[in-house]
Amino acid sequence: PQDATQAVRAAILVKAITPELQRRAKVYAGEAAEIARQRRLAAVASEALFTNDSQLAEHRERLEATPPGAAPLEFGPITPPLALLAPAKGPITHGYGEALTGGGESTGIIIDAQKGAPVTAPSEGLVQYVGPVKGWGVILILRLPGGYHLVLAGLDRATVGIGQSVAAGSPVGWMTDGRQSPSELYLELRERGVPVDPAKWLGNKTE
């Protein structure tokens, strides 16, 4: 079924962003002022997100029951987005392709959002995944009309659910308003499951 296929793709994408967030944990290692952030990033590695989510598990079981010889999952034809709106106001503190102290390069951007700020959809799309990650907040994945996927992580809470269609610029959640918690929003754009630089569509539009 189509909904099962999309749910599994979303689960795969969530797993795919884990290494990037783990690398960020290494970047901030040794920086006392950012120890809290390091712990939050490291927490993303927990497999509990995927094994404990009953809805995704159910969809996976349905796909695993597909008869032998069935065609493998494919992303199909895709079309890049015309533009992306800033999901929240604030400076970009870490850009795509930036060399990380712990090794590797950044595959997304981090926006230093305002405390308690609303988070909006950078593009119209379909919510394929939304759920909390202990210590990190809420992760949201949108499938854009052209087939790209957009990941937002670091929300305090989401106001949309799986299977819901959202319009560009519409509210999808909120950042934390806690004094002790960083208010950082992570954005990643994926083409056929591979991270790409969102700058050409987003530009310097987060201020």
CATH class equals Mainly Beta
Helix content: 25-40%
- Name of the CATH architecture: Distorted Sandwich
User: Main beta sheet, described?
Assistant: 8 strands, antiparallel
What value does the Rg take, in angstroms? 17 Å
Characterise this structure.
There is one protein chain. The chain has one domain: Glucose Permease (Domain IIA) (Distorted Sandwich), CATH 2.70.70. Helices cover 26% and strands 25% of the residues. It has five helices and eleven strands, in the order ααααβββββββββββα. Strands 1, 2, 4, 5, 6, 8, 10 and 11 form an eight-stranded antiparallel β-sheet that branches. It has a three-stranded antiparallel β-sheet with strand order 3-9-7, with no helix packed on it. Helix 1 (2-27) runs antiparallel to helix 2 and helix 1 packs across helix 4 (54-64). The longest helix has 26 residues, at 2-27.
Question: How is the topology of this model organized?
Answer:
Blueprint: H1 2-27, H2 35-43, H3 48-51, H4 54-64, E1 92-94, E2 109-112, E3 118-120, E4 125-133, E5 137-143, E6 149-155, E7 157-158, E8 165-166, E9 171-174, E10 184-191, E11 194-196, H5 199-202
Antiparallel strand pairs: 1-2, 2-10, 3-9, 4-5, 4-8, 5-6, 6-10, 7-9, 10-11
Helix pairs in contact: 1-2, 1-4
